[in-house]
Amino acid sequence: MNLWKVFSRGIIEENPYFVLALSLCPGLAVTTSVINGLTMGLTVWFVITSNNVVVSIIRKTINKKVRVPVYITCIATIVTCVQLFLQAFAPDLYKALGVYLDLVVVFAIILARAESVASKNGVLVSFLDGMGMGVGFTIAMFVISFVRELIGNGTLFGVDVFGPSYMPALILALPPGAFMLIGFMMAGVKMWNQSREKAKQLKAMEGSEG
Amino acid sequence: MSPEAKGQTIGKDAKDMQELKLTVSSSPHVRCNESIPKIMWNVVAALVPAAAFGVYYFGINALVNIIVAVVSAVVFEFLWEKMMHKKVTIKDGSAVITGLLLAMCCPPSLPWWMSIVGSFLAIVVCKQSMGGLGYNLFNPAHVGRAGLMVSWPVAMTTWTQLNGQVIDGVAGATPLNVFKHGGQDALFTLFGANDWGSIYQSMFFGMRNGSMGETCTVLLILGGLYLIWRGYVNWQVPVIMIATVGILMAIIYQSPNVALFEMMAGGLIIGAFFMATDMVSAPITLKGQMIFALGCGLITVLIRVLGGYPEGVCYSILLMNTLTPLIDRLVKPQVFGAVKAKGAK
User: Does residue B192 surpass a pLDDT of 70?
Assistant: First the structure.
């Protein structure tokens, strides 16, 4: 398998958020500000990569019948490390993310990558896959929280952008606005993927004729 | 007749047949006289008097808002259909109705750019992203209004102070709001009236605070009657919705006076005649539409009496829109000639 492909597919083609549509709940809940969204993205990036590596290392010793509890235990351990780290160095962020940090343990995307990639592939492939998926997830979190904080609150990274006369559109700070935004972004990514696919097919046809 | 002549006759017949030029086409063979643009422009015509009254009564900002909402709705429809390489359908008037209804459901003091956002929510988010005219699950104008209500609750509940021309300055409250928080006495103070009769008169002729196009009961009813006369609206729908509100209010407040007031207040008249009868987002069969209207009236009363908002017509229609597919399934008419299977209940 092409190693670059393993890494890059998670960014657009198989973006965990916009294409695989896994773990949608943090996008509605914690992306009200860019800082929160980025922290959530980076947390998932770290957890998914390290979990992929750990699962890949122990994949041959796990009994098939108990593999899901084993994966969950690994994820929970890593998430606890991140929680303790955030608690020690960024207590405000830790408070802002609240229960969603605990929920990272059961995020579908992490379990899905452990099951579909890390349990079948070597350490390097699993690592790259986790990195790619993490990048894709972080980008998704960043883009959503960027739009939501800018329009729904009039700020970016907590700094006022439009001045005091701006009336923020509260709908984007609330879950319904996030739903609409994510829907339109999904449609956009899908359109882009389709046009790329078409271009690739055209190229292949030209190649075979030439 | 000689065989030769007979042959000639047959030849002539065949020639006649050829000249008839019968066209062979698939069904439907009989078409009614109606078309989407015709219906839509008739609805616009039915709405214009009430909108014009709003402009006369609330002043220039109402006119600005109506124009901005209509133009931006049409422009969004045009841009989206161009962008998606779809057939441009702005001439059928459906976007004009959406813009007009949206403006008529918003307070007259609304900043003009909020009307543009509302049109965006109505046309792009609600209508076009679901596939265009005929595919939207919800009434587009009410989706626009609900989105604005969530986004800018203060601007959407700030009602202009009347010029003092008809009744004395009543700032920042609609009759429904006053009644909800102050009761009957506050309502009498609001209208400067001593009896229900003068309140009804003000309500009936639209001399009250409210959204741009919802105040003038008489013009809205006339517009609705025009649509019923043309056959675009089933009279049962507005009647059931308004009657449900009236009857329940009469029971809850033990007062027929309050019931009559509630029936004319808020957006109930415009909602019952123009929104609950939407051909796309309401059920197809008459029976279904009647259940729909009953539900709308019920939820309106629930929100007005128990809810946090003084007015619930918008949300009641949106909530019932979500039930439309279920109602359609419930009242599905039996196929002509079909027989129930043996053992079926």
Answer: yes
In angstroms, the separation between the Cα of residue B71 and the nearest Cα of chain A is 22
Q: Which amino acid is at A118?
A: A
Q: Distance between CA B292 and CA B328 in Å, rounded? A: 10
The pLDDT-based confidence of B143 (bands split at 50, 70, 90) is very high
CA distance A169 to chain B (A): 5
The length of chain B is: 345
Contacts with A180 (C-beta within 8 Å, 6 or more apart), sequence order: B125
Q: Say yes or no: ipTM exceeds 0.85.
A: no
Residue B241 pLDDT > 90: yes
Beta carbons of A22 and A136 less than 8 angstroms apart: no
- Cα B85 from Cα A12, distance rounded (Å): 25
Quick one: closest CA in B to A151, which residue? Answer: B151
Q: Which residues contact A118 (CB under 8 A, 6 or more apart)?
A: A51, A52, A53, A55, A56, A59, A126, A129, A130
- What pLDDT is attached to residue A210? 53
- Give the separation between CA B38 and CA A161, rounded to whole angstroms: 48
Of all residues in chain A, the one with the smallest CA distance to B126 is A180
pLDDT digits over B304-321, tens only?
888 888 888 999 999 999
Q: Compute, in degrees rounded to 10, the torsion defined by CA atoms B64, B70, B75, B76.
A: 110
Residue with more model confidence, B278 or B13: B278
> Rounded to an integer, what distance in angstroms lies between the CA atom of residue B15 and that of residue A22?
71
pLDDT over 50 at B1, yes or no: no
Distance of CA A80 to the CA centre of its chain: 19
Whats the size of chain A, residue-wise?
Answer: 210
Q: Where does residue B333 rank: exposed (0-12), middle (13-18), buried (19+ CB within 10 A)?
A: exposed
Are the CB atoms for B218 and B113 separated by under 8 Å?
no
Rounded Cα distance between B191 and B114, Å, is: 30
Report CA B42 to chain centroid distance, whole Å.
13
Please tell me the distance in Å from B331's CA to the nearest CA on chain A.
31
Q: Can you give chain A as a three-state secondary structure string? A: CCHHHHHHCCCCCCCCCCCCCCCCHHHHHCCCCHHHHHHHHHHHHHHHHHHHHHHHHHCCCCCHHHHHHHHHHHHHHHHHHHHHHHHHHCHHHHHHHCHHHHHHHHCHHHHHHHHHHHCCCCHHHHHHHHHHHHHHHHHHHHHHHHHHHHHHHCEECCEECCCCCCCCCHHHHCHHHHHHHHHHHHHHHHHHHHHHHHHHHHHHHHHHHC
Q: Is the pLDDT of residue B17 over 80?
A: no
Measured CA to CA in angstroms, residue B315 lies from B63, B239, B303 at distances of 26, 19, 9
Would you give the distance in Å from CA B80 to the centre of its chain? Answer: 23
Q: What is the pLDDT of residues B282-309, one digit of tens each?
A: 898 899 999 999 999 999 999 988 888 8
Rounded to 5 degrees, what are φ and ψ at B307?
A: -80, 175
Q: Which of B320, B331, B326, B264 is nearest to B297 (CA)?
A: B320
Chain B CA closest to residue A175: B150
Mean pLDDT on A123-129: 90
Half-sphere exposure of A138 (CA within 13 A, CB side): 18
